[in-house]
Amino acid sequence: MAAPGPVFFWGMFDRARDVLAQHWGYPGFRVPQLKVLGPLFGGRSVLAVLPTGAGKSLCFQVPALLADGLTVVVSPLISLMQDQVRALVRRGLPAAYLNSQLTARVRRRVLEAVLARRVKLLYCAPERLASLSRWLRARAVAVSLLAVDEAHCVADWGNEFRPVYRRLGEFRYLLHDPPTIALTGSATPATRREILKVLRLPEAEVVMTSFDRPNLRFVVERVRDDRERFRRLRELIRDTRGQCIVYVPTRRLTELVTRALLRVSVRTVPYHAGLTPEVRRKVLVAFLRGRTPVIIATTAFGMGIDKPDVRRVIHWGPARTLEGYYQEAGRAGRDGKPSECTILWRPGDFEWGVVASEMGQYVERRRCRRRMLLEYFGERLEGKCSGCDVCGPVAVA
Predict the structure, then answer these.
(1) pTM over 0.90
(2) Are 244 and 310 in contact (CB under 8 A)?
(3) Half-sphere exposure at residue 76, Cβ-oriented, CA atoms within 13 angstroms
(4) Within this chain, domains 6-208 and 216-376 share the same CATH topology
(5) Rounded to 5, what percent of the chain is helix, strand, coil?
(6) What is the distance between the alpha carbons of residues 89 and 273, in angstroms, rounded to a whole number?
(7) What's the CATH code, domain 6-208?
(8) Tens-binned pLDDT, residue by residue, of the chain (397 aa)
(9) Calpha distance 73→58 (Å, rounded)
């Protein structure tokens, strides 16, 4: 995807629209997607900060099908890359993934397919990119595009949890510095700077749209103790006309809350990293197909999953950061219909010692929740709030 002339540039848009219609059935791209594709088709790297439901994946999947070489996609979760590859393969598209759950024989077959140019999109975790980049370089496999999905993980996980994220710029160099697209649903100015620094993309185009999700109503409720918190959780679930995600901070709590809800006849299942891959897969499929009304999960659940009609997201206590909270709350109402995001908290929650000060201010202050969230991301709310517990119940789950 070397820098093209104007005729090639506009020809790429025509071809991209044809690919979009042929394989996904959409008549055209949304405006935010066009803003991303423009510089990308011009050979420039892009940091795309687009809200949940904006169609971020298409911003690299469609160009991958038009490029001459391979597109490498860095994905943070095995379940996420598996879901995206399965969806692409169902559409007859040449995609594959490499992860630790594959046998050596299957990994060898995938790499053979890459050498034979039968794969256009290759997904992998950042940990595997180290060896993969050297393998591709040694075999002179041309990488036309590098995509870093859920790029906020560079800042969220790069320092302690998964330090390999700090080396993505090094791996990008080993791939001969291909045009790169980093995508995320939300990122503060500091997080955006961190992503560009780690990926070594000082000249990248930054494409952003408003962080506001007008169909979401943001609610914070203070409770006295866990008994009251559970009572409110049960009431909120029973008042929800549709499916619900409940986020809790630990694996143990997913199991405890699930058992407590089952005892009061609320159909629900837990989801966390301690479950086997097969169990997690069954839980996810049941939720995506609407067979499970409520899922009790740790925070990674829902990342990149195409579930448009979640009507309510409930947090059992404050999230670790306000940025993380907005990512998780944003999994409600991806179809644009009214949905609600609620935090149930008590002062004792801050004894965990892992809650950022901005998150504490968000739950403790009696100020427009939407305005506080947007200001955190460097955006000013124009006009009235479209729904929060301080300003009024506009959106209803």
Answers:
(1) no
(2) yes
(3) 24
(4) yes
(5) 45, 15, 40
(6) 26
(7) 3.40.50.300
(8) 444 443 345 578 899 999 999 999 999 999 999 999 999 998 999 999 997 778 899 999 999 999 999 999 999 888 788 889 999 999 999 999 999 889 999 999 999 999 999 999 999 999 999 899 999 999 999 999 999 998 988 886 656 668 888 999 999 999 999 999 999 988 889 999 999 999 999 999 999 988 899 999 999 999 999 999 999 999 999 999 999 999 999 999 999 999 999 999 999 999 998 888 889 888 988 998 899 999 999 887 776 677 889 999 999 999 988 988 998 999 999 888 999 999 999 988 886 555 668 899 999 999 999 999 999 998 999 889 999 999 986 544 4
(9) 12
**Residue 245 in tokens:** 């995600």
Architecture of the 216-376 domain: 3-Layer(aba) Sandwich (3.40)
Report the alpha-carbon distance of residue 100 to residue 107 in Å, rounded: 9
- 31 membership: H or E segment, kind and range: helix 31-41
Dihedral of CA atoms 73, 111, 198, 65 in degrees, nearest 10, equals -30
